[in-house]
Amino acid sequence: MEKVVVESFTLDHTQVQAPFVRQCGRILTAKGDVITKYDLRFTQPNGDTMPTGVVHALEHLLAGFMREELADIVDISPMGCRTGFYLILIGEQQVESVKQALVTSLNKVLAVDEVPAANAVQCGNFRDMSLFGAKEYAKEVLAKL
Fold this sequence. Notes:
Elements: H1 7-10, E1 20-28, E2 34-41, H2 52-69, E3 73-78, E4 84-90, H3 95-111, H4 131-144
Antiparallel strand pairs: 1-2, 2-4, 3-4
Helix pairs in contact: 2-3, 2-4, 3-4
């Protein structure tokens, strides 16, 4: 069996400077479609990690806001290390376009009064969200991005 290489395990996390946006994967399907993955890094790896409630609130907020900015998004998922998110989309966008979509989305985070779908019907852990914290991290990322 061939050894699988996981891209994120090849990144030297001690050398990057967060926040940043980078393309970290590209797949060409058998039918010729391109699927692209982006690293939306909010905090410095092995330094600051976002609390779970912050990550969860940002996940809900970015799910809608990023889709308002970019077409063909498949998913926006939090990283297990809680330092950022992965964005997966059909097709390919310039990193600068993804970065601008993130900036616009984080500015929208600052303007909201509630987290969408933060209820028992639409979310499996709706009590564990921090809109205040999401806004604080949005401010920090916007100041440095």
